[in-house]
Amino acid sequence: MGKKGKKEQKKVKGAEKTAAKMDKKISKRSKREEEDLAALIAEFQSLDAKKTTVVETACPPPSSRLNASLSAHPDKDELILFGGEFFNGKKTYLYNDLFFYNIKKNTWVKSDIPNPPPRRCAHQAVVVPQAGGQLWLFGGEFASPDGEQFYHYKDLWVLHLSTNTWEQIKVPGAPSGRSGHRMVLSKRQLLVFGGFHESARDFIYYNDVHAFSLDSFTWSRLSPSGNGPSPRSACQMTSTPDCSGVIIYGGYSKVKAKKDVEKGTIHSDMFLLKRDGKEEQEKWLWSRVSPSGSKPPARSGFSLAVGPTGRALLFGGVCDEEEDETLEGDFYNDLYLYDINKHRWFPAQLKGCKSEKKKRRRGKKGGETGEGSGQGQEEEGAAAQGPVEVIKEIVTEDGTVMTIKEIIPGTQAEEESEEEEEEEGEEGASAILVEPCARSSAMATVKYGKLYLYGGMFEVGDRQFTLNDLYCLDLHKMDQWEVLVEMDPKTQEWLDDWSDSEDDEEGEEEEAKGGDDEEKAKGGDDEEEESEEESDEQDEEDHPPVQPGEALEDFQSRTEQYWVGQARANMGPEVKDTKVQKVGIAMAKVFYEDQQ
After folding, report:
1. CA separation, residue 387 to residues 311, 321, 334 (Å)
2. Among 256, 264, 35, 52, which Cα is nearest to 151's?
3. What is the DSSP secondary-structure string of 124-159?
4. Residue 442 burial (CB count, 10 A)
5. Which of 526, 594, 491, 494 is nearest to 91 (CA)?
6. Taking a C-beta distance cutoff of 8 angstroms, is the pair 165, 113 a contact?
7. Where is the composition biased (Acidic residues) (predicted)?
8. Which of 250, 251, 287, 331 has the lowest CB atom count within 10 Å?
9. If you average pLDDT over every residue of the chain, what do you get?
10. d(CA 391, CA 447)
């Protein structure tokens, strides 16, 4: 028994050593991946550093994207769009471009401002109406082109709208790097909650709360009492009308189940984080909220905004269903409103535009029912109260069948059923209401009592459709959606492993249009315009050239001081020399490989 016990102990220790070695290898690989991404980010920043003046250019609507930020300008009739991501089936693109949308003119302007934040998505942006207007931005993530590696930011930036200047606020005590978090303005503080961090080794979700003072420019981590939300990302976070606290609803998280299988959880609970006491001695308290009304079905990836009269808005999203090791998502395009003062959910019911002829036709039908007309009207009214699920199928040019599930309010479903009964081509018939297609990860904001919805994505099988359409809904009239920018998702190019060479060439042209700055950072693309190629050549001439037949090690040794200097200029003086040197060496490697 003694010998057997010792053998078992040795086996256990051997397994522990093996696991420790594997963890060490994974940790080293994760660090190398972060260094590679840091080098790529630094290369992009070196390109941005060449911009010395503000250039504003009238342009078409921004390219298709999701997980960007859309904010309402505090002083002007404008919306502000920053960053985001796009995936075409083979490659992931990250953006740090800045657009202004003029509401009255329905026009777009791209603003190139020197020294912008690095490319990112899943960040948070908050508008503050002070000093001519400011756009505060925190966190987010950068992904490798193959979408397998991630770098999470913990930087804080402010865009001074009056002077068109970016400024990075470098102060200690910031939250750890993360994306999918939420940030809102509450009195004179920016409150940050939740989010997640993912690497090749592991992932972690957060439920911590941090506050940034707009007066003292300092970070502090709050320690609320009570039972708060579990760790999560992509929740709804809304400041109460009196700025005494914030509401947290829903969100998403995942854990590793048996055999390292990841299992996702969609949250549908709600919490109130309330402040108490004066600013110097304020305390925070978590409490559970049980809202009344018609609660939204469980979902993730919904868009959120704050409407008039203390109402939070929730649009769309997706509910993933796991069956037999397959993942299918039901996408939504419904709109829910939450009355923060009354703690009540209710679905948005659009009134639509009804013609006089249709009203008369409905009255005639009611008269023909005779004694049963009252009962029929009651049945119609009951049917109109609840939303109706409609499934539509669209066949794309390549033969893909897109099945889109849409939730249509009861009044609209009734109108559509009546319209089907009317003869085709009959004058005076009421038109079907226009509405955004079902989607998730769209950008939403409210300006002058109108909800604006931009972009997002939906999936059909393994294919992803990324949007760049823009819709508007008057929250006072609640009549119908207005299309400001239209897009046909069937026309979007999608690249996969089965694409032939001709499709690849066409896809590269589209990639060059949508991500020209990224191609510049990697040496350019053959499909770009001549002016962009000349710009690429000038950028490359600024770096030490690779000599004919020169090995990578020799190139790194010869140009090490130059690349370390580039890394130091982009990373700042506070970063340790060892890390700067590693990033510099990685930058040299990236440049060398691009020249081969």
Report:
1. 20, 21, 9
2. 35
3. EEEEE-STT-EEEEE--EEE-TTS--EEE---EEEE
4. 27
5. 494
6. yes
7. 413-427, 495-511, 525-542
8. 287
9. 79
10. 32
The angle formed by the CA atoms of residues 516, 163 and 111, to the nearest 5 degrees, is 20
Residue 289's DSSP bridge partners are 270
Are the C-beta atoms of 539 and 528 separated by less than 8 Å?
no
Place of tokens 């989010």: 195
3-state secondary structure of 421: helix
Token duo for residue 479: 């009549």
Query: What is the residue type of 579?
Result: K
Contact present, 149 and 37 (Cβ < 8 Å): yes
Taking each helix axis as running N to C, give the angle between helix 577-595 and helix 2-48, from 0 to 180 degrees, rounded to the nearest 10: 70
Report how far residue 460's alpha carbon sits from residue 467's, in angstroms, rounded to the nearest whole number: 14
Sheet strand arrangement including 311-323: 292-293, 344-347, 326-339, 311-323, 303-307
> At a CB cut-off of 8 Å and minimum separation 6, what does 217 contact?
169, 171
Q: How many CB atoms lie within 10 A of CB 392?
A: 11
What contacts 541, CB < 8 A, 6 or more positions away?
none
* Pick from 432, 506, 486, 493: nearest CA to 464: 493
Partners of 197 in the β-ladder: 204
Nearest Cα residue to 396 out of 315, 489, 269? 489
Q: Which residue has the tokens 């992932």?
A: 203
Are the beta carbons of 402 and 460 closer than 8 angstroms? yes
d(CA 408, CA 333): 8
What is the spatial order of strands in the sheet that 92-102 belongs to? 55-59, 107-112, 92-102, 78-87, 69-72
Only one residue has tokens 């993933």, namely 320
Strands 141-143 and 344-347: unpaired
- pLDDT tens track for 339-384: 999 999 999 999 876 543 344 344 443 444 333 433 333 333 333 4
Size of the chain, expressed as the number of residues it contains? 596
Residues 6+ apart with CB under 8 A from 15: none
State in Å, rounded, how far the first CA of the chain is from the last one.
64
Residue with tokens 């979007």: 492
Whole-prediction pTM: 0.71
The Cα 93–Cα 121 span in angstroms is: 10
Question: Between 193 and 532, whose confidence is greater?
Answer: 193
Question: Closest Cα to residue 481, out of 312, 316, 345, 294?
Answer: 316
List the single range of 266-280, 364-378, 490-504, 529-543 with lowest mean pLDDT: 364-378
Give CA 155 to chain center in angstroms.
17
Residue with tokens 């559970």: 288
Token pair listed for 337: 């409103």
Label residue 323 exposed, middle or buried (CB < 10 Å: 0-12, 13-18, 19+): exposed
Q: How far apart are CA 81 and CA 455, in angstroms?
A: 11
- Percent of the chain residues past pLDDT 90, beyond the cut: 49
